[in-house]
Design brief:
Layout lengths: L1 H9 L6 H10 L3 H10 L3 H10 L3 H11 L2 H13 L3 H11 L3 H13 L3 H11 L7 H14 L1 H7 L1
Helix pairs in contact: 1-3, 2-3, 3-4, 4-5, 4-6, 5-6, 6-7, 6-8, 7-9, 9-10, 10-11
């Protein structure tokens, strides 16, 4: 049936593809919703489908096209929970540059016990042209809590 759906959306039609995709997504029929979101394209919802299907690399690629903090946050949370830290870092780099999202991201990593990965993410983020004082502060706090021997070198 998925093949029939792909054929249908590739042709000319007047279907409310977004509405049908949203309904399929809500019904947790992610593979079918993915096909519809790819045809529109709705990259934010497509990234969400990839996350639900455990296809994290594809989720990151769709998130790059969507390029909004909410989508990056969803990808990051899912990747951290799945211990897909390479994809989580890519998503995280798009989040930490927003000071208003940094604290929530840090809390999530710490709550899950992934402070090493958070330190690595922030350290990598400091080389970004969008680095800000909040990133330095958060990293200093993390060093104080988890790696006091590195704090003085950092400061």
């Amino acid at each position: 049936r998925l093949g029939e759906m792909e054929e249908f959306v590739s042709g000319t039609n007047t279907a409310n593809v977004q509405g049908v995709g949203d309904r399929l997504y809500d019904e947790q029929t992610y593979k079918a919703a993915k096909i519809l979101y790819q045809s529109i394209p709705n990259n934010s919802k497509l990234a969400s489908c990839f996350v639900q299907l455990g296809e994290f690399t594809q989720a990151v690629e769709a998130a790059k096209k969507a390029n909004n903090p909410k989508t990056w946050r969803e990808i990051n949370i899912a990747c951290v929970k799945a211990k897909q830290f390479r994809c989580a870092e890519i998503a995280g780099m798009h989040i930490i540059v927003h000071p208003d999202h940094l604290e929530d991201l840090a809390s999530q990593y710490e709550k899950d016990g992934h402070f090493e990965e958070l330190i690595q993410l922030l350290d990598a983020g400091l080389s970004s042209e969008r680095a800000h004082v909040g990133m330095y502060t958060e990293l200093a706090v993390l060093y104080t809590k988890y790696k006091p021997e590195k704090l003085m070198d950092f400061i």
